[in-house]
Amino acid sequence: MLAIDVHQLRKEFKVQKNREGIKGALKDLFKREHTEVAAVKDISFQIPQGEICGYIGENGAGKSTTIKMLTGILVPTSGKLVVNGYIPFKDREKFVQGIGVVFGQRSQLWWDIGVIESFRLLRKVYRVSEEDFRRRLDELVETLQLQDLLNRPVRKLSLGQRMRCELVAALLHNPSILFLDEPTIGLDIVVKTEIREFLKRLNREQGTTILLTTHDLQDIEALCSRVIMLDDGRIIYDGGLEELKTRWGKGREVQFQFSDPVTLHEVSLMTSGLDVRWSLENDLTAKVWIPREMNVSEVLSKVVGLKDISDIKIFETNTDEIVREIYQSGSAEAPRDLSALTAPNVEDAAEKEPVKAGAGES
Fold it and tell me: Where is the ABC transporter domain (predicted)?
């Protein structure tokens, strides 16, 4: 069954045109001119129940506008939109009982009262029974370690503490779909990791469908098997994250730290017959570039045993770099000219800096 079904969804806004100069300003006082701007342009996608899907795009791509339509805050200009079996902007009262929403830069908690009082007010808003509320609250408070925060005013919480409380507020009524708009913005790595682990557990144990928009692609890598990429209001990619990496990955680099000095000629002979490129960083350290279609083990099997190796590191193209290049090209289709993605030739390797396939190390 589908949790979200979107077909040819479109949202247009009327934007006032401001004319230049004093005359233009006077004219605007009496007769304003407007232009139509499309923020979301006829997009279609489906999300089955129980999936965690990343919804990414640059600023102004239409991510937040889509989320607002999916949650019933905005009315679409045209198209079909069904979430949890409801049309969000039509069946608002019944619809909100089945969704939870966290906006990273907006709070649903009351600023000057204790956290627990905000939770109690939300219990009444969502018409949750006292028994269900108490059971759900105890479970969430224990999982997110909020015992010491319940009686503090929201304004006295750190950003990380508030975001954990925002998650509890969004989940008190046990929604089947959770919408997250920049939930880890501004958080340190420890809190981000805690929230990611919590969301994975929530999805695994309760089957909660999660739609996540974020600029932090580490969130996407940690949580999502599928990603929808938006650019200028249109979907330019909808598929698996691993498929995207395979399609756009520049290959991998393996760095070998040798116990004894080596030359470029020596290391090149070790992988004779393989389409790889070597470069030397110093007389003890060499890097080999491996194309994405080749298995790293093929290279390792040829090198290990021929020389004493003190350390090995593998570098892969990271997701940030891939997404940046896709937006620069304007398309998620695989790049046709792969020559720009290859490493230097062996003959030039001693004179050039080694090509870095990415900062991610595994």
Answer: 24-257
Note the maximum CA span of the chain.
84
| Residue pLDDT, tens place only, 141-162 | 888 888 888 999 989 988 888 8
Match domain 249-361 to its CATH number in 2.30.30, 3.40.50, 3.90.1010, 3.30.70.
Answer: 3.30.70
What is the pTM assigned to this prediction?
0.72
- Per the structure block, which two tokens stand in for 135? 């059971």
Considering only residues 167 and 335, tell me which one the structure prediction assigns the higher pLDDT.
167
- Residue 60 scores a pLDDT above 90: no
At position 202, the amino acid (one-letter code) is L
Domain 2-7+44-245, CATH homologous superfamily name and number = P-loop containing nucleotide triphosphate hydrolases (3.40.50.300)
Give the per-residue pLDDT at 14: 83
Sign, CA dihedral 206-210-216-218, equals positive
Q: In this structure, are residues 356 and 315 in contact, taking their beta carbons and an 8 Å threshold?
A: yes
Strand order in the sheet with 285-290: 277-282, 285-290, 252-258, 309-316, 360-361
E strands in the chain: 2-17, 33-48, 52-57, 78-83, 99-103, 177-181, 209-213, 226-231, 234-240, 252-258, 277-282, 285-290, 309-316, 360-361
Q: What residue segments make up the domains of the chain, in order of their start?
A: 2-7+44-245, 249-361
Is the distance from CB of 63 to CB of 18 less than 8 angstroms?
A: no
Question: Looking at this protein, which amino acid is placed at residue 320?
Answer: D
pLDDT for residue 194? 86
Tell the burial category of 65 from Cβ atoms under 10 Å away from its Cβ (0-12, 13-18, 19+): buried
Closest to 228 (Cα-Cα) out of 215, 213, 238: 238
